[in-house]
Amino acid sequence: MPRKPTIRQTETVARSRLFRIEALELEFTNGTVTHYERLAGSGRGAVLIVPVTEAGEVLLVREYAAGVHRYELGLPKGRIEGEEPLLEAANREIMEEVGFAANRLEELTSLTLAPGYLGHTTHVVIARDLYPRREPGDEPEELEVVPWPLADIGELAARPDVTEARTIAALYLTRDRLATEEG
Predict the structure, then answer these.
(1) pLDDT tens-digit profile of 105-150?
(2) Where is the Nudix hydrolase domain (predicted)?
(3) Does 101 have pLDDT greater than 90?
(4) How far apart are CA 41 and CA 23, in angstroms?
């Protein structure tokens, strides 16, 4: 594994309520000095939850996606708050977004998206042994919950309103994990 470049200087060049853009001056091990920009991560990342029912369905939510200005069908997700434990954050998010809690939560993996310039990690959590429990959330409108058979994720991924790579990856990874558990 190569040695990471040395960060010689970091400067915040823009900041919003959600984002911070940093300019980095880097020196690589071969002596090359260059500049990069990155969207710096804030906090401890986010959780993306795959709530799986006893019937083998996943509970998806339809919600507005401002980045693409349309409604997307995807997995419930949200930011990990402060020092909140990861699995507690996952359970809180599914209570807020789908109206269920889980007796069994397991971190499946962590994903990044565009790690060349985006410093954000999403922790994928499988939620099982679900029971009804609704908590108030921070969504501006009530989310539609859409059950979908995990066995039919190829059909789901082909839909024009299912384009988020994290959701698609998490569904395939969950399907494969559950298949290995069964046999």
Answers:
(1) 999 999 998 888 888 899 999 999 999 999 999 899 999 999 999 9
(2) 42-170
(3) yes
(4) 13
H, E, C per residue of 51-84: EECCCCEEEEEEEEECCCCEEEEECCEEECCCCC
CA dihedral 139, 142, 146, 150 (to 10 degrees): 20
Residue 38 is predicted with a pLDDT of: 92
Question: Is 158 part of a structural domain of the chain?
Answer: yes
**Per-residue confidence (pLDDT) for residue 41, from 0 to 100:** 76
43, pLDDT greater than 80: no
What are residue 121's DSSP bridge partners?
Answer: 112
Domain range for 16: 6-40
| Short-list 159, 146, 157, 153, CA closest to 175 | 153
The enclosing domain of 89 has a CATH number of 3.90.79.10
What backbone phi and psi angles, to 5 degrees, belong to 117?
A: -145, 5
Answer positive or negative: Cα dihedral of 158, 163, 165, 167. negative
Coil/strand/helix, residue 37: strand
Q: Are residues 88 and 150 in the same domain?
A: yes
